[in-house]
Design brief:
The protein is of the alpha/beta class. Strand 4, helix 4 (91-100) and strand 5 (103-105) form a beta-alpha-beta unit. The radius of gyration is 12 Å and the shape is globular. The two termini are 24 Å apart. 27% of the residues lie in helices and 18% in strands.
């Protein structure tokens, strides 16, 4: 069974994560303040869904439902050989992801 992780994002990501629970294992981090999954655990999933927009400051993921900050640098160093989804990714992060990720869906 495939696993999906949602890291950051807004209500769209929260709703989609709830819908995908029927299709596989779903982990969440940064979608609300009651995280039950650890970021390191989420980054091991088969598919990683980042927010749209990916970031508003090029340093942290867009995560308006989360009181903390999710570092882009922390996330990208653990996504090697993964399929990741995200939108409006800045050029520097896109270059890093293209070098380490098997499949970037933008």
């Amino acid at each position: 069974m495939k696993s999906f992780s949602f890291i950051g994002g807004d209500y769209r990501n929260l709703l989609l994560s709830n819908m995908l629970e029927k299709s596989g294992k779903v982990l969440r981090f940064g979608l609300n303040n009651s995280n039950t999954d650890k970021l390191s655990q989420c980054l091991k999933s088969d598919y990683i869904i980042f927010p749209i927009p990916f970031s508003k400051d090029e340093y942290s993921l867009y995560s308006p439902l989360y009181d903390g900050e999710i570092s882009i640098e922390e996330c990208v160093k653990y996504v090697e050989n993964k399929t990741v989804f995200g939108g409006n990714v800045d050029i520097n992060t896109r270059n890093i992801l293209n070098n380490i990720v098997v499949n970037v869906v933008k």
